[in-house]
Amino acid sequence: MNRAPLQGAPVDRAVGPPDRRVPALPLALGLAGALLLSLVCGVALGSSGIGLPRVLRLLGAGLTGGRLDAGEAAAYAIVWEIRLPRTVLAAVVGAGLAATGVAVQALVRNALADPFVLGISSGAAVGANAVLLFGAFASLGVWAISVSAFGSALVAMVLVYLAARTAYGLTPLRLVLTGTALSYGFSAATTLMVFAADRGEAARDAMMWLLGSLGGATWGSVPIATATVLAGLAYLACAAGRLDALAMGDETSASLGVDPDRLRRELFVVTAAVTGTVVAVSGAIGFVGLLVPHLARMLVGAGHRRVLLVAPLAGALLLVWVDIASRTLLAPAELPVGVFTAVLGVPAFLLMMRRRGQAFGGAR
To answer: What is the pLDDT of residues 312-349, one digit of tens each?
Structure first.
């Protein structure tokens, strides 16, 4: 059965496979090389003034098990226990948000969709703020925020699914409307929690989390986030052909042997799981999942196999440098990562809309 596209928010015509512009594989290799260099820069740059040669020596000692002088213990701890997990997690979160942005835009066939349109991030915020403001799940120690945020994200996912599901399956319009409505409800609950809690450091921490921050990154949070993002990327890579079919409409995809309702359910679960995981460790970081997929399509065309090769690397590269800026521009103070992504994302997205008006519903 054919599903109508979203009213008032035209389907992105660029989602269907037009002519490619830049060869995807060389671009992906270039982005991968730039990402490796950026990871080194992310470890080297910071307020403590550890130079690049010294950072490289400390990294080499840690990788090879080399011996270090006792005077280097503090610098070694900064590099290996603070900066490196934070930089790696920034890359993982950026890749996850970009990949799920591609998936959500195909899921709802809407150019303006991103991983947060389903209400998952707002649901995660309720759990995270319960820990930050009221000390919930304190027995879990350093895992309290991540576990609580991910658990509340799963609850939000279930609520959105149950509310949006009909006898005819999941339709794009109902998903977006349900996710938006529940997102407002979760945001209201979060605001009420902030007002009900004591003012001070807890409220500030809650605001930092709501705007996105990687300041709490540890090696304990990296493996789970990495495994979830890699699993999501693997699924999306295998489903790239079906995503191309889904972007052409339910009737066309059914004629090509793709069950649109089943694929939509699978995409909903995968994007919710990846979004919930990365939001649990980084807070709500906007615009990466909205901006990067469009940038990737501009560069390599709209075939999902090519887009999914480029977008995660571009998202990782973007968030690594955004995190560097957030902790160095006003050092030793740290700014929320989400502020920088909004500063970059708003003008870039408006510029893309002006240059590609037809793809965003402009006149021919």
So the answer is: 999 999 999 999 999 888 877 788 898 889 888 888 87
Rounded to whole angstroms, how far apart are CA atoms 161 and 203?
31
The per-residue pLDDT for range 212-224, each reduced to its tens digit, is 888 888 888 899 8
Peptide bond between residue 332 and the one before it cis (omega within 30 degrees of 0): yes
Asked if residues 3 and 259 have their Cβ atoms less than 8 Å apart, the reply is no
Tokens at 310, concatenated:
């480029």
Residue indicated by tokens 């979760």: 186
Residue with tokens 């948000």: 97
CA distance 46 to 63: 21
Per-residue CA distances from 111 to 8, 14, 53, 138, 164 (Å):
12, 9, 44, 40, 20
* 169 beta partners: 166
Cβ partners under 8 Å of residue 9, min gap 6: 110, 111, 112, 176, 361
